[in-house]
Amino acid sequence: MRKKIVAGNWKMNLGIQEGVQLVNDIIAKLPVFQTHQHVIFCTPFTHLQKVNEVINQTKNSSLHTGAQNCHDKTSGAYTGEISIAMLQELGVNSVIIGHSERRQYFQESNEFLKNKVDALLANKMHVLFCCGEPLEVREAAQQNAWVEKQLQESIFHLSAETIQQGITIAYEPIWAIGTGVTASTAQAQEMHAFIRSLLQATYDEDTAQNISILYGGSCNAANAAELFACEDVDGGLIGGAALKAESFLPIIEAMK
Ligand code: PGA
In this structure, are residues 236 and 251 in contact, taking their beta carbons and an 8 Å threshold? Predict the structure, then answer.
């Protein structure tokens, strides 16, 4: 059975104490998880250690922390960057790679992202790999080719075994991120099925069926259940709605 995942991407929001309070509030009301269900808190770097301590106290193996970025090199003169080993020291086991904000504001190319993916997987880390098209590409009906290129150039060089073990794909249409405009269930399902068909063509049926594909982009308490009910949607990468327990908990509950 594919893993079901709800990941909260806090971006550059919340102080450490606010973050710890949020995680405590969520933990206090968590539903009982099945073994294939997971929640990942992708906090700012500075919060990871404290949030991990809170999570570890629960002894709930469905809860994880994730970073929002990392560097591909092990150490050196990369001012402002963070290495995979540094994240592992904090107890982090997942990293978001290729978020559209990293691509757009920090000029992260498919090739650079490929290097990060390789470094993370060599270190047995779990990658939440983001893809998704801007509005003008959707309007020109070129979204499939756009997403295919992102996947081809950053993750489709991996072996079937490695991609199955280490990668979760998050489809996040840029026009839906932080805009309040959510992809319709039909649009989400269509793209997720397309991504799965690419996995089938590039690898095999087993790989296509085992990789979780999350939806991200204005997913909230009101639309999560409908989106997650789509056959090829295995959960969500949640931005704004992950910042409050009352909006994040119903999304966790929508994960079946
Ligand atoms: P949003 O962000 O839920 O606020 O649209 C999603 C994301 O950027 O991961």
Answer: yes
Closest CA to 248 of 87, 17, 28: 28
Residues with CB under 6 A from ligand 1: 9, 172, 177-178, 216-219, 237-241
Q: How far apart are CA 97 and CA 103, in angstroms?
A: 10
What are the extents of the domains in the chain?
4-253
From residue 71, alpha-carbon distances to 91, 150, 180, 181 in Å are: 17, 19, 31, 32
State pLDDT tens for residues 155-168: 999 999 999 999 99
**67-121 pLDDT, tens per residue?**
999 999 999 999 999 999 999 999 999 999 999 999 999 999 999 999 999 999 9
Q: What's the CATH class of domain 4-253?
A: alpha beta
What is the maximum span of the chain, computed from C-alpha positions, in angstroms?
49
Using a cut of 0.90, tell me whether the model's pTM lies above it: yes
Ligand 1 closest atom vs CA 11: 8
Q: What is the mean pLDDT of the chain?
A: 97
- pLDDT tier for residue 256 given thresholds of 50, 70 and 90: confident
**C-alpha 239 to ligand 1 mean position (Å):** 3
Q: How far is the CA of 129 from the centre of ligand 1 (A)?
A: 14
Atom of ligand 1 at shortest distance to CA of 170?
Answer: 9
Q: What was the pLDDT predicted at 188?
A: 98
Q: Which of 47, 71, 99, 126 is catalytic?
A: 99
**Catalytic residue from among 47, 71, 172, 192:** 172
Residue 124: burial class (beta carbons within 10 Å; 0-12, 13-18, 19+)? exposed
pLDDT value at residue 31 = 86
| Spacing, Cα 172 to ligand 1 middle (Å) | 8
